[in-house]
Amino acid sequence: MSESVPPGIADRMTDIQPFHVMDILSRARLLESQGRSVIHMEIGEPDFATPQPVVDAAITALKAGRTHYTPATGLSALRTAISGYYRDSYGLEIDPRRIVVTPGSSGALLLALGVLINPGEQVLMTDPGYPCNRHFVRLLEGEAVSIAVDASTGYQLNAAHIERHWRAHSKAVLLASPANPTGSIIRDDSLREIVETVSRLGGALIMDEIYHDLIYGDKVQSALNFSDEVFVANSFSKYFNMTGWRIGWLVAPERYVTHIDRLAQNIFLAASTPAQYAALKAFDAETLTQLEQHRQELQERRDYLLPVLQNIGFGIDAIPEGAFYLYADCARFTTDSFAFCRDLLEKVGVAITPGCDFGQHLAESHVRFAYTTAMENLQEGVKRLKDYLA
Amino acid sequence: MSESVPPGIADRMTDIQPFHVMDILSRARLLESQGRSVIHMEIGEPDFATPQPVVDAAITALKAGRTHYTPATGLSALRTAISGYYRDSYGLEIDPRRIVVTPGSSGALLLALGVLINPGEQVLMTDPGYPCNRHFVRLLEGEAVSIAVDASTGYQLNAAHIERHWRAHSKAVLLASPANPTGSIIRDDSLREIVETVSRLGGALIMDEIYHDLIYGDKVQSALNFSDEVFVANSFSKYFNMTGWRIGWLVAPERYVTHIDRLAQNIFLAASTPAQYAALKAFDAETLTQLEQHRQELQERRDYLLPVLQNIGFGIDAIPEGAFYLYADCARFTTDSFAFCRDLLEKVGVAITPGCDFGQHLAESHVRFAYTTAMENLQEGVKRLKDYLA
Q1: Which residues in B lie closer than 8 A to residue A262 (C-beta atoms)?
Q2: Are residues B126 and B79 part of one domain?
Q3: What's the pTM value of the predicted model, to 2 decimals?
Q4: What is the Cα–Cα distance from B103 to B220, expressed in whole angstroms?
């Protein structure tokens, strides 16, 4: 996955890849500007508007002049509100001091890895997985260890994987539940074993739980239900429909908080103030009612899309239980998933994401469908795929 | 300046210092909550509200549902508007593709250093200087080389400094004009020499120009007036009074832009969308008229504060020509500037920032005054200082 960089550019940029989906998206926008119709199933962003109470809270804050810096760890009231969320959703008491408000979960992951990873230290993660994870580790001169996963373990690492791949220089395990691109989740028993194993090995567990409220079967527990020693990154982007606001949070073990505060002061100063005031309304009853409707709509989309894609000939061998993605084997149609995605866009106006955005393991034979567009669009996209691939 | 870190925490955190002013600020807030009056001259944030046209633009965007991700490099219209700013302010034609919108200038500095600095490579900067600069370099496993400066070179590096300190592993020079904490600027002739010297040495020049519109004498040119090969970080925070919005920008040499885009995609996704729509109105005539009034008010504050502090006995041996800071020698009163700041706060309710926040060079005998509070507050603060130090 490496390429050469021009002289003067840091070596790390050899390994930091662009999102290939951006090429697809740019091309799609160009086609649309030329009058072509494109069905967008490439975008990892819900199509729902930010809930009105949240928008209204931002407007109220702006009118009141709330545009100055907040503390680096975020508004005290927001940290308390997030603590309340853990109480209501997970039955957990999390000291607000352990909660740091961040510029999106990107900021949370950078802080967690920044206080943990020395150069050369390893972070274990899945392949396929969220591509930024390995790039954060590379930025910090650590080593991302991508472990191939498949349906046999529900596209997640388990305790045995971690034991098997742990080395002297391993420092942390970074997992997402539900995961991008597979929508797979980690069941409570497996998560407990993972927490215990990483702890026994002397490592740190970083959980990305940004899709944790977008689960379509039985809810699962947060990693925080099993330990106060894990790092949990979360976000207002996905479930709360606040992508562009850039606001998330990190829950950290208590002894790391001083250092996280210090790093945040230096590299971010703070998260966006209007976004923080907006997020104060994210947990209100009216907001949560809307969000639950969105979750149900996403579930209907998944329930529609999964069997029809299988019928067309895409291989989806583990039911995706969360997020808004289906990761599908397209080997029946192509040996080059990127070319396949370009073809689908050019020939029938269906935009999806090639597997190479998520790692190397079987990337050439996989694509990601995002069901972040309305049902009628999904139906139209399916019709086009069916006609073209028949 | 190093301290030990607990086991499990990355070594870099040994060197990444908190802002000591945060202790002062927290203590000040506590005293205020107990009914004490505190004059705030510690805060590096203008007391002006965000201009109304900017706030209104954000509200309009929010009402129109502009809450989704933008491209990682920012809204095309905003990049074009920033290009127009360089045309109007500096007579420069900057291709909007070379302009990347960032989460504050913090984001701009992280991107510039991220694409430039390999582990062990050196970045030359001033001591005293903005503390985050050396911490960004440390985060990336580079080496910050802090060069002591004083009034003899206007508290800035010059070409001779750079020649003298340049080593095989030197990669970049990072300067600010006007600078924090000294308010010093780099005159055109010196800047031209610096640009030429860094270029001849094969290094990269990164200029922090976030206070560039807050200059109280003759304007100076941007580093971009001398070369297309420099990196310039700028921000809507200070001059445009948009601190809490977290929005800035980076102008980069063309051949770096692809890599900067790629890094931004991975570590930020994008800057806050409502903030970007707000910033579209930052260059409007009505906004600029307000901002010019603010600049004049800041100049009046500086013109008041500089001589009265000198009369009290603070040493200010180079006239600060920009930003909103005075860096003052307090050796007549103390050999421990941090204790002195604590004392001033406890005894007379005047909050200022100790020199140790800006480096090591004579830090024990220096403090920073920020004139980010109204004239009547500055007058009251001066009265308290005069009475206490008499």
Answers
A1: 13, 16-18
A2: yes
A3: 0.96
A4: 26
